[in-house]
Input
Amino acid sequence: MSEFSGIENASSTARLANLRPGVYVLEAQAFKLVNSRAKGKMFISEWKVVEASGVEANEVGTSASQGIIMSWDSALGNIKAIVAAGSGESEKNITSAMCDAIVSDKNPAKGVKVRAEAKLTKTRAGNDFTLIKWAT
Output
């Protein structure tokens, strides 16, 4: 038996780069709901950088992601903003059914382009945090 038996069903732990400060046009690649060993359930959005401006911005053509820890108080509001931008809907029209659909295997938002502005800020604890504002 091979040392790699079962690799066909394994998930990669490869990480995409986070968005750095800049102004972007991003193309949706995937939205996922995953279980992280360290952080519990997370909503992951994966993007391809189509346009970018800013000294520290990710390069055009590269991939980036954002992970939102579902247990945080801000999680649902942040996910609502991403789903609204990706669907072209107003935030007031976002439903749990829409969020369930966006993380489904059908990947209905793949290819949708959104605008985003990423700014570096500090948390209450003094740690760096990238705040992302989403728009259609």
The two ends are 51 Å apart (CA to CA). The chain has two helices and six strands. The first strand starts at residue 17 and ends at 18.
